[in-house]
Amino acid sequence: MATRVVLLGAPGAGKGTQAKMLIDRFKIPQISTGDILRKAVADGTPLGKEAKVIMDSGGLVSDKIVLGLVEERLKQPDCKDGFILDGFPRNTAQAEALDKILTGSSMPLTVALNIDVDLNDLLKRLTGRRTCKSCQQMYNIYFSAPKKEGVCDKCGGELFQRDDDKEATIKKRLDVYQQQTAPLIDYYSKKKIMKTVAGVGSIDDIFKKAVAALEGK
Ligand code: AMP
Q: What is the CATH number of the domain that holds 22?
């Protein structure tokens, strides 16, 4: 049976990390609107230029832009057997639009998985986050520091702090999450597909709980 997932959780809850492990396990693609937008920014496309200003401020890019990107991506053949949406939907309007798209193509969501993490923990996770410029590997200077400061263990690339991981931006992103995204937990609970796992402990432990949730155990 296809596994069609929406991954919920505040910025810093570990959605991206879990999504990368889950796609290996379930052999389905990860669709991260944050990654798609960051690529558009890096490529300097008109859409990327428009999105960068908003992303750097910690706000949400317009629903129209994001929905267009997601709708296109879901049409790709690799989504036939399932997918993991990571960072989308971010508000009720996006969730409703997604339901319409998926119902129209007879691929309704099977699970909404929330990775639940305490707000104070999130701040440390986010301000400590560093990403490799070359291979995108992520580190945290508090919890999973690279062996050599500023250098990727895997490929020797330079580590950097994403513009949207700076402190003022992070506060705004957490605010936006509370106000706009957290209500989706209620939204999917009403649809009876909501599952929550505690996003604390080792990455592997969280992964095991996430797999069990996706397998309906
Ligand atoms: P993320 O990596 O998912 O935290 O996304 C980084 C930034 O990209 C967010 O702070 C938003 O500015 C933008 N973004 C990502 N996904 C969405 C979305 N579904 N709707 C609106 N903006 C988004």
A: 3.40.50.300
